[in-house]
Amino acid sequence: MNRSFLKLFVAFAVMLAFTFVSVSGFAAEKKWFVIKDVKGVCKVIQAKEKTAKSIAGPFDKKDDAEKSKNDLCPKKDKKEKAPDKKI
């Protein structure tokens, strides 16, 4: 009976260790940030921590970061073409 208890205990300990490692791996997941480069272009990147170029974040989901990017850096309308000059 002692051996079966020992086997059950070892199996439970291994299962518990595996669960702990799995949960820890998800907790250290990279987050999403909105950054702006030197040319003024906004991008969504995945990083472990905030960078110097970050303007928003961290976000858990990429969709949330994309929404924030659209709010913070709206696309500029193309400039209207200048009327043709007649010579």
How does the SSE layout of this entry go?
Elements: H1 2-27, E1 31-36, E2 42-47, E3 54-59, H2 62-72
Shape: rod-shaped
The percent range for strand residues is 15-25%
Distance between the termini: 105 Å
Which structural class do the helices and strands define? Answer: alpha+beta
**Main beta sheet strand tally, sense and closure:** 3 strands, antiparallel
Q: What's the gyration radius in Å?
A: 26 Å
According to DSSP, the number of beta strands is 3
Helix share of residues? 40-55%
Order of strands, widest sheet: 2-1-3
List the helices and strands in order. HEEEH
Give the number of helices: 2
Mean pLDDT: 79
Outline the low-pLDDT stretches.
none
Outline of the structure:
This protein has 87 residues and is of the alpha+beta class. It has 2 helices and 3 strands.
Structure overview:
The model has no long low-confidence stretch (mean pLDDT 79). Helix content is 43%, strand content 21%. It has a domain at 30-74. It is built from 2 helices and 3 strands. It is of the alpha+beta class. The termini are far apart.
Considering the chains and any ligands shown, give keywords for the structure.
87 residues, alpha+beta, three-stranded antiparallel sheet
